[in-house]
Amino acid sequence: MKHSHLQKGQMVLMVLLIMLVGLTVATGVFLNSLSQVKNTSSQESAQRAFNAAESGIEKYLSYNIGSLVEMSANGFSSDGLTISGEVKTCDDSQKNCFQATVLENDVAAINLAGGTATEIQLEWDSCADLLVEKWTADDINLRTHFSHNEGECSHNQQILSIDTNNDKILRIRPIYDQANLTITSTVGDLPAQQIVITSEASEESGETKAIKVTKSFEDLPPIFDYVLFSGGNLAK
C-alpha cells in the first residue's frame, strides 16, 4: 500500500510539473505574440507618421524657391503637420549661400537676379575643375574655367566678379571629379539659393517622424547644355 501511495504521489508531482512547463510555454508564446502585435502596431504608426510627413514635403517641393522663401517668412499652412522652412546660410555671417555635393558633369545653378553680390567665392574640396557659365540678361553665355590646385585638392578657392545689373544665372559644372561646393558672397549678398524644409507628423500613439530636405534654385537639367535649339530651321 505504501508503495502504491508513493507511485500515486510521484504521478501527481509529474502531472503538476508537466502542467507547469506547459503553462510556462503557453505564457511565453502569449507574451511573444503580444510583443509582436505591439511592434507591428508601432511600426504601422511610425509608417503612417512618416507618410504624413512625406506628404507635407512633397506638397511644398512643388513650389519655386521664391514662393517658399515668402512662405517661410509668413508661415506654412500646416494641414495638421508641423512644417517650417529656413533659408540656407553659411558660417556665422548669416549670408545666403549655396552648399551641395555636385556630381561629376552635373550642374549647380546659382541665381544672381535680385541680389547685391558683386563678388562671390567658390570653394570645393576635390580634384575637380569647374566650368562656370555666366548667363546675362541678354542671354549671353560667358564661360570661365577654374582649375583645382596642383598636388593639393583638399581646398580650392576662386573669386568671381558679378555684374548685378546684367548677370542673372551661374551654371557650375565639375569635371574630372565630383565637388563639395560652397558658394558665398564676399561683397554684397546673394539672393536666397536654398531653403531647408522640415515636415514633422505625429500619430495618436505618440509616434513622431520628421523629414528634412533642401530645395535649390530650379534650372534646366545638365543634358540641355548639349542640345542645339533653333527657333527656325537648321541648315547644315
Kindly provide the radius of gyration, computed on alpha-carbon positions and rounded to a whole number of angstroms.
Answer: 32 Å
Q: Counting H and I runs of at least 4 residues, what is the number of helices?
A: 2
Which CATH architecture of the domain at 59-222? Sandwich
Strand content: 25-35%
Share of helical residues: 25-40%
CATH topology of the domain at 59-222: Jelly Rolls
Structural class: alpha+beta
Low-confidence stretches: none
SSE run: HHEEEEEEEEEEEEE
How many runs of DSSP E, i.e. beta strands?
A: 13
The main sheet comes to: 4 strands, antiparallel
Q: Give the CATH level 1 class of the domain at 59-222.
A: Mainly Beta
Strand order, main sheet: write it out: 4-11-6-9
Mean pLDDT: 80
**What does the overall shape look like?**
elongated
End-to-end Cα distance: 120 Å
Give a nutshell description of this structure:
The chain has about 240 residues and is α+β, with helices and mostly antiparallel strands.
Describe the protein in words.
This protein is α+β, with helices and mostly antiparallel strands. It has a domain at 59-222: Sandwich (Jelly Rolls), CATH 2.60.120. The protein is 30% helix and 34% strand. It contains two helices and 13 strands, in the order H-H-E-E-E-E-E-E-E-E-E-E-E-E-E. It has a four-stranded antiparallel β-sheet with strand order 4-11-6-9, with no helix packed on it. Strands 5-10-7-8 form a four-stranded antiparallel β-sheet, with no helix packed on it. Strands 1-12-13 form a three-stranded antiparallel β-sheet. A hairpin with a 4-residue loop joins strand 2 and strand 3 (95-96). The longest helix is centred in the N-terminal third of the chain and has 60 residues, at 2-61. It is elongated, with a radius of gyration of 32 Å. The protein starts with a helix and ends in a 20-residue tail after the last strand. The model has no long low-confidence stretch (mean pLDDT 80).
